[in-house]
Specification:
The protein has 340 residues and is α+β, with helices and mostly antiparallel strands. It is 44% helix and 16% strand. It is built from eleven helices and ten strands. The strands form two sheets. An eight-stranded antiparallel β-sheet has the order 2-3-4-5-1-8-10-9. A two-stranded antiparallel ribbon has the order 6-7. Strand 6 and strand 7 form a beta hairpin. Helix 7 crosses helix 8 and helix 8 runs antiparallel to helix 9.
Amino acid sequence: MRNSKWYEQPNELGDIVVSTRVRLARNVADYPFVSRMSLEQKQELIQKVKQTLESANFSSDNPIHYIDMAALTQAQAVSLAERHVISPDFTTQREGKGLFLSEDESISIMVNEEDHLRIQVLCAGLQLHEALDMANRFDDLFDSWLTYAFDEKLGYLTSCPTNLGTGLRASVMLHLPALEQSHNMGRLINTLSKLGLTIRGTYGEGSDAKGALYQISNQVTLGLDEKTACENLKGIVMQVIDQERQLRAGYVNEAMEDQIYRALGILKYARLLSYDELMNLLSLVRLGVSNAIVPNIQIGTLNSLIINQGAASISSMADHEVKSEERDRIRAQAVRKAFA
């Protein structure tokens, strides 16, 4: 029986909060930064990480598997980024890059990305402290086997100066259709910037918000500890959730209900679906589920479709090159099956 993925799990605040991510950037003192490492050094570090993980007694219910990034096709690599398992940058120049991924895809350790180690934990809903605790568990494990590059004043030394200090990037992905449609996003972006936070699109920096999905994350990594950074982020996210809910009270009327049911009808019967159209339709249905307009649909089902129906994810499952129209056909078929 297949283990359920992290995004299929029920979660508190799932009506608005899609996911929580905590990522720690670490470098090993014995090696130069990744940009100056030889291929031999990169492979040596991967072996050290592998040995460290093998030494730990992790649960057999969620084993961690190794993936040689260079052995993947481009579609397979980009599919991992679409599923938020890795960063988009990790899909390029993959020689000497390794990924350690848990079976439920909640834990991923990127070796030789921008930094030697990127320890990432994903959770459904708002679970910042739970994600941080799990990330710290792996951080402590590596710290006991490897010597981190650390400075008493600057904290953890990282390739990019913006990550100095804790090396922590914590983010929460939110579904904000009411804030978006009421043209309040500009004001929210300005407010968050003043509070040391940033808001980005669905796939992070430089990406657009598809289906009204936005990521709010910390910017400050120097001068405060990880727990405080997560507490600050959680407090602001709760305020954004309150704003979204207040706006939804006047946003969801009879005309909006009609749009929601039309979207559901298209998803149930369409024969061709582009990814952008899918995301827009799922946004409406998610709003309907969250407001108890649409019954008998689980948030986990919607999350799964959001994460698994990107172009590369569909192509990586096929044994041949999948062109645009065929992808749209395969996507529509998977959506019909999910809503059957």
